[in-house]
Amino acid sequence: MVTSARLFRKASSPARPRAWLARASLLVLVGMLTACGFTMRGVTPLPFDSLYLMGLSDNTRFGGDVARALRAASPDTQLVTDRKNAQATLIAVSQSRSQRETSLNPQGRVEEYELRVQYTFRLIDARGNLLLPDTTFTDTRDMPYDDNVVQAKQGETETLYRDMEKALVSRLMRRLTAPDVAEAFEIARNSPDDNSLPVAPPLPEPSEEPAQPSVWTNPRLDTNPANRR
């Protein structure tokens, strides 16, 4: 029995150095990544303490999504209701939904639509300096169509538009929290009023109450060839 136990220990002993070597290699790898400045991706706050949303009302679904994403990404940034109290302003320049026919059957009826969502925005500071020029995000989805189930397809259309809107919100957050935005804000904040900044000049101020377009309203699915443009 003693001989058998000794043989077992001898046979299993090489596994211990291998396990120790694997742990040591992992520690060395972690140390190298840390030395290179590698960190786990987490919440990236906005560089300003207060933000005003122009043209993005909390009463709209997309505006509400943007506001919630901003609060989640930068809890210390206050979304103010008075632009005079904001260090920066996010301006919705334009937003739209559209669709186009991409496939017809032999009878001339639509078999597939391409759905599109587009959002253009700009970011300025309290003095009107442009932190981000007009930036346009677009997302598209293909949707097979069957005119025998119009109501079901209308519901599917709305679901696809909502998915695209959420994708645009995620892209917007990544853009607003990018390092170049924080750099532009710091340059603008530390520059005197009469000094030219290494950023684009301010754009003309839009109306405080822009006309609300038919934003995020589904275009009508119409399979009548006589009504198509």
Automatic annotation (TrEMBL):
Keyword Nucleotide-binding: no
Cellular component GO terms held in the UniProt record: cell outer membrane; transporter complex
Residue ranges of the region described as Disordered: 188-229
Stretches with biased composition (Polar residues): 216-229
InterPro entries: LPS_assembly_LptE (IPR007485)
GO BP of this protein: Gram-negative-bacterium-type cell outer membrane assembly; lipopolysaccharide transport
Pfam families per the UniProt record, alphabetical: LptE
Superkingdom classification of source: Bacteria
Membrane-crossing residue ranges in chain numbering: 20-40
Sorted UniProt keywords: Cell outer membrane, Lipoprotein, Membrane, Palmitate, Signal, Transmembrane, Transmembrane helix
Summary of the function given for this chain in its UniProt record: Together with LptD, is involved in the assembly of lipopolysaccharide (LPS) at the surface of the outer membrane. Required for the proper assembly of LptD. Binds LPS and may serve as the LPS recognition site at the outer membrane.
Family: Belongs to the LptE lipoprotein family.
Quaternary organization: Component of the lipopolysaccharide transport and assembly complex. Interacts with LptD.
Protein name according to UniProt: LPS-assembly lipoprotein LptE
Organism: Orrella dioscoreae
Lineage of producing organism: Bacteria, Pseudomonadati, Pseudomonadota, Betaproteobacteria, Burkholderiales
Gene that specifies this protein: lptE
